[in-house]
């Protein structure tokens, strides 16, 4: 019984605090609008998490400096940055914390695994969320009206990869391997679908795990089917030994991967055997982004080198505030209706959303290892 | 790729009898030979690590779960030395750098093995058998975390210092590294059998395995013999660790776990406590994994894929244990060291 009463009391307090988003908090004479930002700020991905935070902060500072007026009042934006440590459990805890603190919107999270469980909490509270970097299809597939992202998802990336393999690389016979993770398998499935649709023949579908290092057996079996190309859905710790072992077996098939492979670590681990490997990454390379050069100059003067997703976090913040401006309110219930109508020219490109909250016509860029470096091949707009 | 139904069933029947003869015999022969090479190389690494499990079990009836982590430590230490040398003395030939790595990794692992025995197992020598088993798991976790603290969570790459020569054998390919792994493993196993069968220490080990008490009554320094067993096993683990990281081109603080699990299964398959059994079990497990992953898809007409390779390997293990509970060569009598 006590527990119930306590719970009710907590709810009441939460409701009170939650009501603050639009008006109650004051900064001098200006009302403050809280915006949440969540990414891993500790742990092995801390450098990426900090990068997202800085990208979002840069946008927020610019908006504040330019002055923001909502509902006839000048308001000040304030960022509440939280650490989810790339962990799904922590992600839900900090999401609840932000909801309780009464944020009007959230930029985040960074990882798909953390973004997906947190998205339910924001959806239940009716708070819009824009993830700069979560690419798993499942994030927007839940059907939450509050879930958006400004990066091409895995399905879009997979379909570009599958088409690219058949039409551009001229691969007739394709072998596909995945690591049985949500990411690897999802990507591989999309590649298989797209490759078949483009007229390619999937001659082998093999599986491994995200712990394995020995692929000799499955590669030998694949070699017997003489494919023109081997696609791997997974991350660089598996891709690197796989590329090595392909060379070791004297396989001449091309090696293609997704964004888990398009990393400096892949080249470091595979060494000379990385040469010629192909991989994709969602979005444009920074120097090809419409506002890339200017963003880079401003960002790096303030925070140092860009790690990866900062431009996306920056655009996500602008897209969110843009919707508030159009609704002339920071009340989530009011400006949420404006988000689907977004058409924003950002640093990373033009941001428009489809019915699920995915980026419409997002770009995917293909890279190849040449002389021990990833070199941009071309950027493809994913057809939607 | 899969034609379902009757076609698949017929394929299982035909292929089950003679996997090598799938389709035209000559066209598939090179694939068969390649899988054989793959399996033998993988198996000889398993065998080397399995020897460490089986030696300790033979003498103490203890499953030293930290053994896989000693393999990992061997790889990490050797890589640290190799990395440093490759930068400090770039002119050195790859073989020399590798030997230097081994020359540091082996003694470090030997000392580590001795230390673990002294600190974690000896005080529990007469405790119930569950206690040292739990300690072994604890030691394994501690070693993983130490490695993670020192070398981080990232995969570490093995510098390309070794010759990358590849040779064609009847349509299959074998690399210099693979040949080196095979030859070295066979030599080490022969040397180990020599030590156990022909030397004073070997005799003391066999005596201790039969009965610790009687051996000590006969004047055998049992503590020293047990420590030596750990030291020898750890040296083998260090070599296996360096082989694995050179072969796959990387090392990782977690690499010992899976390798240890597989090697332990190999030791059980061959009959834990039996040296020849560990070697046989290791080679068999390597071959089963390789052929399993390579042919399971074709054998079942695409019904089961290579995602079942581990299931397949462990299915064989269970089947063997059902009919021979002490393993293929396991005899629950005298010669166990």
Pair with the biggest interface: A-B, 34 and 41 residues
Q: Helical amount among residues of chain B, as a percent range?
A: over 70%
Number of helices of chain A: 13
Cα-based radius of gyration of chain A, to the nearest Å: 22 Å
Structural class by helix and strand composition of chain A:
alpha/beta
Helix-strand blueprint:
The complex is a heterodimer of chains A (384) and B (337).
Chain A: H1 2-18, E1 26-27, E2 30-39, H2 46-66, E3 68-70, E4 73-83, H3 88-101, E5 105-107, H4 112-125, E6 129-131, H5 138-141, E7 147-149, H6 154-168, E8 173-178, H7 182-197, E9 201-207, H8 216-223, E10 229-233, H9 236-248, E11 254-257, H10 264-270, E12 278-282, H11 292-303, H12 310-327, H13 332-335, E13 343-345, E14 350-352, E15 363-370, E16 373-381
Parallel strand pairs in A: 2-4, 2-5, 5-6, 6-7, 8-9, 8-10, 10-11, 11-12
Antiparallel strand pairs in A: 1-2, 3-4, 12-15, 13-14, 15-16
Helix pairs in contact in A: 2-12, 3-4, 6-7, 9-10
Chain B: H1 6-17, H2 25-60, H3 67-88, H4 94-121, H5 130-151, E1 156-157, E2 166-169, E3 172-175, H6 176-198, H7 200-210, H8 212-217, H9 222-248, E4 250-251, H10 255-270, H11 275-299, H12 309-323
Antiparallel strand pairs in B: 1-4, 2-3
Helix pairs in contact in B: 2-6, 2-9, 2-10, 2-11, 3-4, 3-5, 3-9, 3-10, 4-9, 6-7, 6-9, 7-9, 10-11, 10-12, 11-12
Describe the structure.
- The complex is a heterodimer of chains A (384) and B (337).
- By secondary structure, chain A is α/β, with parallel strands linked by helices.
- Chain A folds into 2 domains: 2-152 and 288-353, 3-Layer(aba) Sandwich (Rossmann fold); 155-282 and 364-381, Rossmann fold, CATH 3.40.50.
- Chain A contains 13 helices and 16 strands.
- In chain A, strands 1, 2, 3, 4, 5, 6 and 7 form a 7-stranded mixed β-sheet that branches. Chain A has a 7-stranded mixed β-sheet with strand order 9-8-10-11-12-15-16, with helices on one face. A two-stranded antiparallel ribbon of chain A has the order 13-14.
- In chain A, helix 9 links the parallel strand 10 (229-233) and strand 11 (254-257).
- In chain A, helix 3 (88-101) runs parallel beside helix 4 (112-125), helix 6 (154-168) crosses helix 7 (182-197) and helix 9 packs parallel to helix 10 (264-270).
- Chain A is elongated and about 75 Å long.
- Chain A starts with a helix and ends with a strand.
- Residues 13-24 of chain A have low confidence and may be disordered.
- Chain B has one domain (6-11, 28-323): ABC transporter involved in vitamin B12 uptake, BtuC.
- In chain B, the strands form 2 sheets. A two-stranded antiparallel sheet of chain B has the order 1-4. A two-stranded antiparallel ribbon of chain B has the order 2-3.
- In chain B, a hairpin with a 2-residue loop joins strand 2 (166-169) and strand 3.
- Chain B has helices at 6-17, 25-60, 67-88, 94-121, 130-151, 176-198, 200-210, 212-217, 222-248, 255-270, 275-299, 309-323; strands at residues 156-157, 166-169, 172-175, 250-251.
- The longest helix of chain B is centred in the first third of the chain and has 36 residues, at 25-60.
- Mean pLDDT of chain B is 85; it is low at 1-26 and 333-337.
- By secondary structure, chain B is mainly alpha-helical.
- Chain A binds chain B through residues 44, 180, 202-208, 211, 213-214, 216-218, 220-221, 223-224, 236-237, 240-241, 244, 248-250, 265, 268-273, and chain B through 1, 28, 31, 34-35, 38-39, 41-42, 153-155, 157, 159-160, 164, 166, 168, 173, 175, 244, 248-250, 252, 254-255, 258, 289-295, 297-298, 305-307, 309.
């Amino acid at each position: 019984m006590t527990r119930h009463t306590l719970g009710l009391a907590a709810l009441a307090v939460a409701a009170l605090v939650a009501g603050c988003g639009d008006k109650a908090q004051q900064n001098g004479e200006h009302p403050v609008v809280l915006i949440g930002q969540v990414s891993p700020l500790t742990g092995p991905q801390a450098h990426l998490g900090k990068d997202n935070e800085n990208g979002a902060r840069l946008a927020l500072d610019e908006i504040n400096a330019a002055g923001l007026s909502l509902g006839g009042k000048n308001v000040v934006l304030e960022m509440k940055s939280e650490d989810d440590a790339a962990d799904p459990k922590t992600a839900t805890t900090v999401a609840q914390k932000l909801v309780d603190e009464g944020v009007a919107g959230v930029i985040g999270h960074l990882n798909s695994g953390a973004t997906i469980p947190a998205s339910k909490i924001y959806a239940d509270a009716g708070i819009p969320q824009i993830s700069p970097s979560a690419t798993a299809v499942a994030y927007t597939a839940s059907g939450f009206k509050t879930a958006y992202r400004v990066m091409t998802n895995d399905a879009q990336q997979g379909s570009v990869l599958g088409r690219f393999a058949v039409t551009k690389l001229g691969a007739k016979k394709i072998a596909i391997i995945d690591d049985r993770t949500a990411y690897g398998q999802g990507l591989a499935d999309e590649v298989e679908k797209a490759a078949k649709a483009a007229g390619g023949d999937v001659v082998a579908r093999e599986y491994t795990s995200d712990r394995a290092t020995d692929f000799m057996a499955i590669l030998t079996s694949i070699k017997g089917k003489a494919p023109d190309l081997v696609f791997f859905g997974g991350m660089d710790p598996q891709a690197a030994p796989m590329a090595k072992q392909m060379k070791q077996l004297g396989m001449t098939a091309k090696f293609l991967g997704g964004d888990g492979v398009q990393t400096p670590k892949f080249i470091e681990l595979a060494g000379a055997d990385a040469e010629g490997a192909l991989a994709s990454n969602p979005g444009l390379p920074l120097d090809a982004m419409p506002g890339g050069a200017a963003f880079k100059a401003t960002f790096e003067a303030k925070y140092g080198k860009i790690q990866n997703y900062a431009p996306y976090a920056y655009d996500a913040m602008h897209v969110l505030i843009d919707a508030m401006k159009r609704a002339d309110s920071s009340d989530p219930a009011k400006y949420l209706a404006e988000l689907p109508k977004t058409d924003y020219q950002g640093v990373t490109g033009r941001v428009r959303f489809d019915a699920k909250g995915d980026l419409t016509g997002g770009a995917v860029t293909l890279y190849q290892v040449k002389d021990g470096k990833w070199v941009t091949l071309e950027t493809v707009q994913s057809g939607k | 790729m899969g034609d379902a139904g009757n076609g698949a069933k017929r394929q299982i029947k035909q292929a089950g009898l003679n996997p090598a003869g799938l389709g035209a015999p000559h066209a598939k022969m090179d694939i068969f030979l390649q899988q054989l090479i793959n399996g033998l190389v993988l198996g000889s690494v398993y065998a080397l690590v399995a020897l460490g499990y089986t030696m300790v079990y033979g003498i103490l009836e203890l499953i030293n779960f930290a053994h896989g982590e000693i393999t990992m430590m061997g790889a990490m230490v050797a890589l640290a030395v190799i990395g440093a040398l490759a930068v400090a003395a770039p002119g050195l030939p790859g073989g020399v750098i590798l030997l230097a790595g081994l020359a540091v990794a082996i003694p470090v692992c030997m000392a580590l093995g001795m230390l673990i025995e002294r600190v974690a197992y000896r005080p529990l020598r007469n405790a119930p058998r569950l206690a040292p088993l739990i300690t072994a798991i604890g030691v394994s976790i501690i070693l993983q975390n130490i490695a993670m603290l020192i070398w981080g969570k990232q995969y570490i790459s093995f510098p390309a210092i070794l010759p990358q020569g590849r040779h064609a054998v009847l349509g299959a390919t074998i690399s210099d590294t693979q040949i080196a792994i095979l030859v070295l493993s066979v030599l080490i196993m022969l040397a180990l059998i020599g030590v156990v069968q022909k030397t004073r220490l070997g005799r003391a080990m066999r005596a201790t395995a039969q009965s610790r008490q009687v051996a000590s009554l006969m004047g055998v320094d049992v503590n020293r013999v047990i420590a030596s067993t750990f030291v020898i096993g750890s040296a083998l683990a260090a070599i296996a660790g360096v082989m694995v990281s050179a072969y796959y081109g990387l090392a990782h603080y977690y690499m010992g776990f899976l390798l240890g699990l597989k090697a332990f299964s190999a030791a059980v398959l061959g009959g834990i406590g039996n040296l020849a059994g560990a070697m046989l079990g290791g080679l068999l497990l390597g071959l089963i994994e390789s052929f399993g992953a390579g042919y399971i898809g074709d054998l079942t007409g695409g019904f089961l894929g290579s995602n079942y390779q581990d299931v397949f390997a462990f299915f064989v293990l269970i089947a063997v244990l059902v009919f021979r509970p002490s393993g293929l060569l396991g005899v629950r009598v005298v010669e166990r060291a």
